[in-house]
């Protein structure tokens, strides 16, 4: 919550602040509390929490009964974030922790990824290889997530990788 309050305080606006978040219970709780504290502390005159609810990693037919969930990437997805990007815009890299990595591991992953951004060809080859390996690992990922989670992890990862592979 400290980070959210710091972010709100760092970009003051007379018109208000929109917190575009993923539609997870924990996010809604923590960002909602941060919004209330920001108002009480006078960091902003108006703060609105807007949960994004479209999960592009799972096909519509597979989730029609329960609906799609929000993912971190929806904030920078031009079709969902209502932002138009052009070829000359800077590149954004979003690294999301789905809860399985420690802060140390996530930091190491981020640093390694950033070090490879110097050469786009290297990054393309790395992402392509990661997608190929993730697709092949789908049965194991699904099996492990059925034991430790809700069983959709492998299929979601495979779906993302299959969607990314043709456009890499």
From TrEMBL:
- Provide a GO CC annotation, any one: cytosol
Q: State the protein's name.
A: Putative Dihydroxyacetone kinase
Q: Where is the DhaK domain?
A: 1-168
Identify the SUPFAM superfamilies for this entry: DAK1/DegV-like (SSF82549), DhaL-like (SSF101473)
Q: Which GO terms describe its molecular function?
A: glycerone kinase activity
Record keywords: Kinase, Transferase
Q: Which GO terms describe its biological process?
A: glycerol catabolic process
Organism, scientific name: Glarea lozoyensis (strain ATCC 74030 / MF5533)
């Amino acid at each position: 919550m400290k980070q959210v309050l710091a972010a709100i305080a760092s970009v003051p606006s007379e018109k208000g602040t929109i917190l575009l978040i993923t539609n997870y219970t924990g996010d809604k709780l923590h960002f909602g509390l941060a919004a209330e504290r920001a108002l009480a502390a006078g960091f902003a005159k108006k703060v609105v929490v807007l949960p994004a609810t479209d999960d592009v990693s799972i096909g519509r037919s597979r989730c029609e009964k329960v609906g799609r969930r929000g993912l971190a990437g929806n904030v920078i997805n031009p079709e969902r974030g209502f932002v138009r990007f052009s070829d000359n815009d800077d590149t954004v890299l979003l690294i999301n922790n789905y809860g399985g990595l420690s802060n140390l591991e996530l930091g190491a992953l981020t640093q390694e990824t950033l070090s490879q951004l110097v050469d786009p060809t290297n990054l393309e080859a790395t992402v392509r290889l990661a997608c190929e390996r993730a697709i092949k690992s789908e049965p194991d990922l699904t099996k492990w997530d059925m034991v430790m989670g809700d069983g959709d992890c492998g299929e979601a990862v495979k779906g993302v990788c299959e969607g990314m592979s043709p456009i890499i």
